[in-house]
Amino acid sequence: MTTTTRRFADLTTAEVPRALSRDSILVLPTGALEPHGPHLPLRTDLLIAERTAAAAVDRAAGAGQDVWLLPALGYTKSDEHAHFPGALWLRADTLMRTVVDIGRSIAATPARRLLFVNCHGGNSALLEVALRELRRRFELQTFLYGGPARPGPTEQGFGIHAGWAETSVMLHLAPELVEMSEARAAVPHAIAGHKHVGFGKSVRFGWLADDFAESGVIGDPTGATAEIGAELFAANVDTLVAALPEIAEFDPGRVGS
Q1: Which of 66, 196, 197, 228 has a CA between 20 and 30 Å from the CA of residue 189?
Q2: What is the pTM of this model?
C-alpha cells in the first residue's frame, strides 16, 4: 500500500478492496463547531473527537487490529447553541441524511463495522437512531462510543459544556487555544437539587445553552488543569482501545438458529 497509516482517506481506490475486509472497523469521529464560552475554541468537541479516535486507532492498529480512521464529521447538530455567534450546525434531518449517505458509501466497501466516536452531546440521540437505521438499511454492524460524563467537584453534576472536564482535556491537547483568564463558573444551582428532572435523571428536559448562562457555559472550568486533562483523555482512549476487540467480534447471534 502507498500509505503506512491507518487513515482511510490515504488509501487509493485500488487499495480499498485489498486493505479492507468484512472484519475491518471504520472509526468515524463526530464533534461540533459551536461556542464553548469565552475561553475555549469553537472546534473543542471536534478536536477532542479527532484526537481520541486517532490515538485509539493508532494503538489498536499497532497491536494488530484491523481498524481504520475516517475523516471527522464537524458540521453536526448544534442548534442548542444557535443563539451564539460562531455556531455552524445542521438540522437533525440533514445530519441524519448525511450519516445515512456515509453508511451507504461504506456499505460499498468490504468493511461492515462502523464505530462513531462522539464528543458532542447534541449528536448522541440522533446517532443512536442512526445506528439502527444503518443496521437495517445496509446491514452494517454499528456502534457508538461517547465516553462517560465526568462532572467536576464544584459542578453539582452539571459539567456538560465547556466545564471542568472539557477545559482540562483542552489544556492537555491544545493549551495554546485555551484562555483560562476568561474562564468563569456557570453552574445552574436553581435546578441542581432536583431529584427527578435533570441531565441523566429519570425525566429529561428540552433546553438551549443560553437557558443556563449568558456565556453558554454549563459547568465550572475554573479548576481545570492539564494534568487532569491528561488523565481524562488517557482514560477515554484506554476504554476505547479495550472495546475494539469486542466490536471486532460482536455478533449477538440468533437464539435457536
Answers
A1: 228
A2: 0.95
Cα(49)–Cα(181) distance, integer angstroms: 25
Summarised one tens digit per residue, pLDDT across range 73-119 is 999 999 999 999 999 999 999 999 999 999 999 999 999 999 999 99
Question: 154-163, pLDDT tens digit by residue?
Answer: 998 889 999 9
Strand partners, 203: 197
What's the rounded Cα separation, in Å, for the pair 222 and 164? 7
- The three state secondary structure string of the chain is CCCCCCEHHHCCCCCHHHHCCCCCEEEEEECCECCECECECCCHHHHHHHHHHHHHHHHHHHCCCCEEECCCECCECCHHHCCCCCCEECCHHHHHHHHHHHHHHHHCCCCCEEEEEECCHHHHHHHHHHHHHHHHHHCCEEEEECCCCCCCCCCCCCCCECCHHHHHHHHHHCHHHCCHHHCCCECCHHHHCCCCECCCCCECCCCCHHHCCCCCCEECHHHCCHHHHHHHHHHHHHHHHHHHHHHHHCCCCCCCC
Give ∠ CA 178-9-144 in degrees, rounded to 5.
65
Nearest to 119 by CA among 236, 239, 247: 236
